[in-house]
């Protein structure tokens, strides 16, 4: 299978500003739900999701937790410098959030021309005492900067960033975060710190919906993929083959892999992040079968590598690798590109929100449903569905 030759303009559509929901619904599960199957569309609400799944199906969600990654420093001159943390630099996520006095991150820097060198200071109240957090530029990594945070009070970085950071709302919201965003821009199953953008398909779930799914006989599992700011990165090239995907770190437990192998129904990804993780799993298994380390999945690997192995062979190889290395989970990174022409190995269903025009996430949807994506989006537009992160959602069978 060759790398797809796709003109990104073919995945453009008109998205009026008023169709982007920027204030979340009070009830997460009250969002509209479009259900697509074999060319047919049904309109519903998300609270009815369990009625569209069957006993024995397996729903897999992303339990990554959004960190308050947006931090504002102010220079002595008065200029504001905005830091958007992306990922730990040189260490793991676990090590970074447990750091005691310093830690380095890759980051985007707003107003970077006004801050080329020197430390910036941010004063905070910590346990009724005035303390300072410092930041310094240390270098460049691809299209981002490397910054180092330092502090000399008794706290780990997970506590520090909670104290100094803000909810990293998508830039297209064009508003500052408010108190309600702290809880609403987080899924109910958020667990492992690391994302700088929410896995937004998961924002619709409530404990009541999860309980109803369980009562229906739908099995559930979780993966962890830390969503990077690259999820907002537009495709600036005319052809998708010239676009560089961002790599994202993910972790999948032995238990989850076994549930996939044991599943007798359909496997449904709750969100594009879950889908990218699940489809990357297959290619990690192929790597093991071919004597390679299951450490990463390249952007075009699924189009250029051999896919002669079955899902069962690939996943069993991963379990055998875990046995051999005495580990309980697979940790790797993926820059996988799922676009029309992609061959799905794990998933047969996707629950996802509505994505921006000319985005790689829209290409992923088109990979699942073909040109029917146009029919789906036109239907959603006509029937007043709301789009993007706080918007409505859909369930696609393919």
Protein described:
This protein is of the alpha/beta class and 398 residues long. It folds into two domains: 8-65 and 185-397, QueA-like (3-Layer(aba) Sandwich); 69-165, no CATH class. Helix content is 24%, strand content 28%. It has ten helices and 18 strands. It has helices at 93-97, 157-164, 179-184, 207-216, 254-262, 272-289, 301-304, 311-325, 360-369, 372-382; strands at residues 32-37, 40-45, 58-62, 64-66, 70-74, 80-88, 102-110, 119-126, 129-141, 144-151, 192-195, 219-225, 248-253, 267-270, 296-297, 329-334, 349-353, 393-397. The strands form three sheets. Strands 2-1-18-17-14-3-12-13-16-15 form a ten-stranded mixed sheet, covered by helices on one side. A six-stranded antiparallel sheet has the order 5-6-7-10-9-8. A two-stranded parallel sheet has the order 4-11. Helix 5 packs antiparallel against helix 8 (311-325) and helix 6 (272-289) packs across helix 8 (311-325). The mean pLDDT is 96.
Any descriptors?
398 residues; alpha/beta; QueA-like; 2 domains; 10-stranded mixed beta sheet; 6-stranded antiparallel beta sheet; globular
Distance between the termini: 20 Å
Q: Which topology of the largest domain does CATH recognise?
A: QueA-like
Number of helices: 10
Largest sheet: 10 strands, mixed
Task: Describe the secondary-structure layout.
Blueprint: E1 32-37, E2 40-45, E3 58-62, E4 64-66, E5 70-74, E6 80-88, H1 93-97, E7 102-110, E8 119-126, E9 129-141, E10 144-151, H2 157-164, H3 179-184, E11 192-195, H4 207-216, E12 219-225, E13 248-253, H5 254-262, E14 267-270, H6 272-289, E15 296-297, H7 301-304, H8 311-325, E16 329-334, E17 349-353, H9 360-369, H10 372-382, E18 393-397
Parallel strand pairs: 1-18, 3-12, 3-14, 4-11, 14-17, 15-16
Antiparallel strand pairs: 1-2, 5-6, 6-7, 7-10, 8-9, 9-10, 12-13, 13-16, 17-18
